[in-house]
Q: What sequence folds into this?
């Protein structure tokens, strides 16, 4: 059992090899000017100090060069998205040609489902985790409807067993097997936004493919949070947003993964736009769409440079820290949080996030039966920024890039007092 004194937290911070990264972020303050306890990186990651300069650089380029900025300077806008492929690939365990930054998350899910959800009369179902983020549910329901299917028949939600909070992997695999040759697509979250459960993506991919389905993942809560090896695991596609753990600002440009085995197939149906074509011949303005190879062939429009500059500045921090080291710290940080919560006397709270480190990222969801709102108000009054999901769940996410063991310790002290 770990000691619950403040000094233990301070010691862990002193020994933390990643502790200096906190200084590279703006930490929000309260009205008195003191730093708040920010535990909300699962919703909106904090702003890296480098972001402003990265944006200013592009604004100045625009001011000084106008349209010439597309082709001139050190990072010409025409190929700007290519600068992000290497760091994004590192982040999700892919090859650079398998990823690209574009659009927003839900829009990308639709674009990717246009390619990978090709239902037939016999094989038309989409399997999704029960309690998925509503946007994902709306997206799959509307996809089914667009193809002429009734979502009540087409959408299969896999739910936990009675009295349980998480999905057992064996139950997910079983559901895939049971639906078998009626499943066209499995669309699962990587980390569930509500419970924080990190699913066994490799096993799901294997089972999905064995059933003859396509497999895609929504990595909104996984990218930048947990170790991913998309290329090796082999899903057909994935998509994520960049404003949560990727710290790229509200509404930031999102990212996609398309596995190499599809990236080479120009004949795959897709919604096309000029940015999906070969950059060498794009300005010949030909009448026929020929996609370029890789995930880049799914792009529609020229890149939102200001948003991409923010993403680029943020990804530099990830490259420097590396996901391996971040995950290592994250497990210690969240392990510490989970232990301190367990040490609070009484049974005021139930942690509904899996305890097993392989089955969670940094987020811990705390259920406070009958008093969620009151607890949230007390936390807010004590300058804790976290997130509340009606009726009774508080989500806490200590992120390894900028949160400290002391943040976690202070939070748990406040939580303990709120229990009285
Ligand atoms: C945050 C989140 C979204 C939000 O979608 P946007 O298109 O970025 O607004 C969608 N799905 C999941 C699973 C999320 O966590």
A:
């Amino acid at each position: 059992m770990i000691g619950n004194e403040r000094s233990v937290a301070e010691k862990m911070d002193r020994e933390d090899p990643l502790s200096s990264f906190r200084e590279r972020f703006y930490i929000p303050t309260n009205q008195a000017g003191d730093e708040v306890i920010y535990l909300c990186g699962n919703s909106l990651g904090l702003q890296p100090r480098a972001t402003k300069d990265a944006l200013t650089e592009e604004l100045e380029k625009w001011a000084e060069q106008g349209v010439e900025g597309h082709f001139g300077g050190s990072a010409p806008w025409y190929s700007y998205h290519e600068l992000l492929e290497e760091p994004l690939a590192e982040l999700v365990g892919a090859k650079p040609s398998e990823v690209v930054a574009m659009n927003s998350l839900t829009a990308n899910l639709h674009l990717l489902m246009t390619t990978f959800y090709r239902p037939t009369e016999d094989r038309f179902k989409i399997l999704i985790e029960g309690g998925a983020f509503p946007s994902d549910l709306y997206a799959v329901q509307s996809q089914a409807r667009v193809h002429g299917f009734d979502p009540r028949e087409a959408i299969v939600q896999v739910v936990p067993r009675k009295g349980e909070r998480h999905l057992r992997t064996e139950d997910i695999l079983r559901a895939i097997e049971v639906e078998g040759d009626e499943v066209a697509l499995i669309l699962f979250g990587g980390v569930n936004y509500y419970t924080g459960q990190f699913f066994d993506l490799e096993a799901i991919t294997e089972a999905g493919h064995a059933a003859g389905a396509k497999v895609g993942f929504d990595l909104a809560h996984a990218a930048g949070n947990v170790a991913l090896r998309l290329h090796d695991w082999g899903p057909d596609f994935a998509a994520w947003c960049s404003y949560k753990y990727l710290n790229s600002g509200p509404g930031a440009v999102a990212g996609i993964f398309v596995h190499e085995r599809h990236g080479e197939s120009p004949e795959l149906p897709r919604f096309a736009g000029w940015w999906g074509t070969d950059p060498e011949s794009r300005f010949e303005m030909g009448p026929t769409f020929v996609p370029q190879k890789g995930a880049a062939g799914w792009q529609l429009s020229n890149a939102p440079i200001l948003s991409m500059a923010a993403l680029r500045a943020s990804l530099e921090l990830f490259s420097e820290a590396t996901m391996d080291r971040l995950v290592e710290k994250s497990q210690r940080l969240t392990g510490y949080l989970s232990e301190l919560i367990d040490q609070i006397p009484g049974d005021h709270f139930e942690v509904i996030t899996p305890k097993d480190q392989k089955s969670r990222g940094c987020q811990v969801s705390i259920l406070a039966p009958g008093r969620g709102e009151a607890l949230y108000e007390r936390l807010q009054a004590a300058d804790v920024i976290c997130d509340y999901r009606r009726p009774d769940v508080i989500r806490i996410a200590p992120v390894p890039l900028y949160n400290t063991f002391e943040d976690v310790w202070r939070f748990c002290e406040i939580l303990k007092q709120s229990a009285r």
Observations:
- The first strand starts at residue 37 and ends at 38.
- The chain has two domains: 6-35+322-418, 55-319.
- The radius of gyration is 22 Å.
